[in-house]
Amino acid sequence: MLNNTGFNLWANDYDQTVKVSEESNTYPFAGYKEILNTIFNAVMQQKNTDVLDIGFGTGVLTNKLYENGHLIDGVDFSSQMISISQVKMPAANLMEWDITNGIPPVLQDKKYDFIVSTYTLHHLNDNEKVNFIRELLSHLKTGGQLLIGDISFETRDQLNTCRTDNLAHWDEDEFYFVFDELKASLEGNCEIEFHKVSHCGGVMVVTE
Predict the structure, then answer these.
(1) Which domain holds residue 110?
(2) CA 124, CA 122: separation in Å to the nearest integer?
(3) How far apart are the first and last CA of the chain?
(4) Per the database entry, which stretches of residues form a coiled coil (predicted)?
(5) Where are any strands of DSSP class E within 27-164?
């Protein structure tokens, strides 16, 4: 797992790293653009919504929403990535925060039409993911959606196959989504759907 220092050092090259992986259809970023487009199109079904982006990075997705009139709050733990994104989105409310501590206190009373997160929550272990998702759901307005795009698999067997195929550069410090396990952990708390995009990525739509 990269710490925030690592992400600060990676910030200027992050988009190029993603592009190389996506264009070669390889782990970990195969399907990246389609995943972001899926989330973008879901938010764009409504106008001028309140959006919270968890781990907005260099603002690839969030900036498009910002340009289309959506009101953006965002948290990320890389000060360098925040600096890059703030130039693109000067009126957005972007803050440095470590999500292992949950939602920032300043946002505790806010609710959103959409909460989005792309390629961030895999830094939380499985129990932390479940607890954080439950917390995020409490910050949705009635009818709101939590949209998660990430390295993810329908089953543990699919994850293990991907790991075997990519042992040379598999990141053992990251915790990837296994949809059927996540769904079981959240049973009774919400509705959750999985839209597979690539062999190692997809979008989860979570509603209360």
Answers:
(1) 31-44+103-123+130-207
(2) 5
(3) 30
(4) none
(5) 50-54, 71-76, 93-96, 112-118, 140-153
pLDDT tens profile 132-172: 999 999 999 999 999 999 999 999 999 999 999 999 999 99
- Using CA atoms, how far apart are residues 149 and 202, in angstroms rounded to an integer? 6
pTM of the model: 0.91
DSSP conformation class of 81: H
- Whether residue 112 lies inside any domain: the answer is yes
Distance CA 77, CA 56 (A): 10
Specify whether the CB–CB gap between 37 and 13 falls below 8 A. no
Side-chain-facing half-sphere of 84: CA atoms under 13 Å: 21
Could you tell me if residue 57 is inside a domain? no
* Residue 22 belongs to some domain of the structure: no
Other beta carbons within 10 angstroms of residue 120's beta carbon come to 20
pLDDT at residue 14, as a whole number? 59
pLDDT over 60 at 3, yes or no: no
* C-alpha–C-alpha distance, residues 103 and 134, integer Å: 11
Q: Residue 193: which CATH number?
A: 3.40.50.150
Total structural domains in the chain?
A: 1
Q: Residue 62 domain-assigned?
A: no
Listed in sequence order, the residues at least 6 apart from 43 whose beta carbon sits closer than 8 Å to its beta carbon are 49, 51, 65, 70, 113, 114, 116, 147
Per-position DSSP letters for 146-158, written without gaps between them: EEEEEEEESSHHH
Q: What is the DSSP letter of 77?
A: S
pLDDT at position 6, please? 42
